[in-house]
């Protein structure tokens, strides 16, 4: 319901859901910082994930203009994998100019931690906004009663 009594809370709730997805994505990136193989066991390093938001959340706010939602989560192909010289490693490259190097994920722990802190702060800001909306509604109900 667009413009209803709970619209303020719906907007904050959509942002809380989006920021939770962002925090989960960063946690997943950090968990895979040393993953050099894919799910099938082949040497194929994990690729850092990035999240894209879009304005509007029809499911929660009833509007394409109010709130926020996750548009997509995709692999970060713009940054290169990290190569470390470890010729004894089972996943070391065996031929070519990178012989003896192991390809590690393009996850940089300090960057992920800073991005995670930003997501936490955004989550907290939206919790505060939701609490303010509750106080406004509570005050309105006290005036009516």
End-to-end Cα distance: 24 Å
| SSE succession | HEHEEEH
Query: By helix and strand content, what is the structural category?
Result: alpha+beta
Sheet having the most strands: 2 strands, antiparallel
Strand line-up in the sheet with most strands: 1-2
What is the approximate shape?
Answer: elongated
Secondary-structure topology with pairs:
Layout (H helix, E strand, L loop, with lengths): L6 H25 L17 E9 H4 L1 E13 L6 E4 L15 E4 L4 H36 L1
Helix pairs in contact: 1-3
Give a short summary of the structure.
The chain has 145 residues and is of the alpha+beta class. It has helices at residues 7-31, 58-61, 109-144, and strands spanning 49-57, 63-75, 82-85, 101-104.
Notes on the protein architecture:
The chain has 145 residues and is α+β, with helices and mostly antiparallel strands. The protein has one domain. 45% of the residues lie in helices and 21% in strands. It is built from three helices and four strands. The strands form two sheets. It has a two-stranded antiparallel ribbon. Strands 3-4 form a two-stranded antiparallel ribbon. Helix 1 runs antiparallel to helix 3. The protein is elongated. It starts with 6 loop residues before the first helix and ends with a helix. The mean pLDDT is 92.
């Amino acid at each position: 319901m667009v413009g209803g009594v709970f619209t303020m809370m719906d907007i904050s709730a959509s942002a809380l859901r989006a920021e939770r997805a962002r925090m989960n994505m960063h946690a997943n990136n950090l968990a895979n910082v040393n993953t050099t193989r894919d799910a099938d066991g082949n040497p194929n390093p994990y690729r850092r994930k990035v999240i894209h938001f879009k304005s509007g959340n029809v499911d929660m706010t009833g509007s394409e203009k109010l709130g926020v939602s996750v548009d997509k989560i995709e692999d970060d192909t713009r940054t290169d994998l990290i190569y470390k010289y470890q010729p004894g490693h089972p996943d070391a490259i065996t031929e070519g100019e990178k012989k003896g190097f192991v390809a590690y994920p393009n996850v940089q722990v300090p960057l992920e931690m800073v991005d995670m802190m930003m997501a936490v702060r955004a989550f907290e800001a939206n919790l505060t906004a939701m609490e303010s909306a509750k106080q406004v509604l509570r005050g309105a109900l006290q005036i009516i009663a």
